[in-house]
Amino acid sequence: MAKRDFYEVLGVAKSADEKEIKRAYKRLAMKYHPDRNQGDKESETKFKEIKEAYEILSDAQKRAAYDQYGHAAFEQGGFGGQGGGGFGGGADFGDIFGDVFGDIFGGGRRQQRAARGSDLQYNMELTLEEAVRGVSKEIRIPTLEICDKCHGSGAKEGTSAETCSTCHGAGQVHLRQGFFTVQQACPTCHGRGKIIKEPCSKCHGDGRVERYKTLSVKIPAGVDTGDRIRLSGEGEAGEHGAPSGDLYVQVHVRQHNIFERDGNDLYCEVPINFAIAALGGEIEVPTLDGRVKLKIPAETQTGKMFRMKGKGVKSVRSNAIGDLMCRVVVETPVKLNEKQKELIQQLGESFGGKSGEKNTPRSKSFLDGVKKFFDDLTK
Ligand SMILES: [Zn+2]
Ligand SMILES: [Zn+2]
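^ thats the input. predicted complex w/ zinc ion below
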């Protein structure tokens, strides 16, 4: 897909000033922010696009390069990201949100010398009942916390970090690259602006230590697979006292052996015997709140769906309540005794001949169709 023009993405004129660009970005970022549009892929893509456009247009140098060379100015690794917190935790805790959620509103990374902590993801399996009713769960997660020995500075007790002599504390250096000058993280201090001569013995200069923490997570009623709950500030601690990342609890609902869920509706299949199907009657069907009675009208065919209003799932996002859809399946009787066999035999015989045709309209129309098919073949 061709990349859209950055000005177009933000909906501003080419001549827009910094303030206008910032305002447009904030407005759009709010609108398409993933937290407000959970599970909406399109919003997520839009949000990334907006963020990228803002990153370029809010930086005078990058903007100038873009105005002159268009998207080509940033291809082949050009500016790249400045990294989002570096070291992803365990195998299941990759920093997949770091890039999207890294710097949300206000400020951004530029003024922030040390990187914000990585966001963490925790995959939580729930039963359907838990997801529908809501539940509180304790989780144990490996995370990085601020080192209590150096209070996050990374420097040994009694010493402190020194200002980097290469970048004079800016954390950035300017390099000429082809047509223009680019800003890069300082190679001496890796963007921190400070050098630690004597690192803290506990965290080895990182300012953070690994620790397991237990958190109680409240899952709201109505969540479904793909929903995500954000625990602000419960991600990894930032480097050298920078803000912590967030923790995202990703919900996965296990398969249920009776109900299948589709949005707010639940589906289930209920077998009925063939006498009830023919003559009508009342059966019991399961719902999440217990058994309820369901009237089956006479002459019910197999596969018929009955809708039970309001017996589905209450939406996590609104007051909407789904329905329970019961699909009845007529069961062929098995292990018949002699008497039963005899009765069915008689019933079957009564279906034969012209007079029985009206009892089996579907068979009749099918047989008529078959007959026509063969007649046509031999014509
Ligand atoms: Zn330390
Ligand atoms: Zn430096």
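The mean pLDDT is 83.
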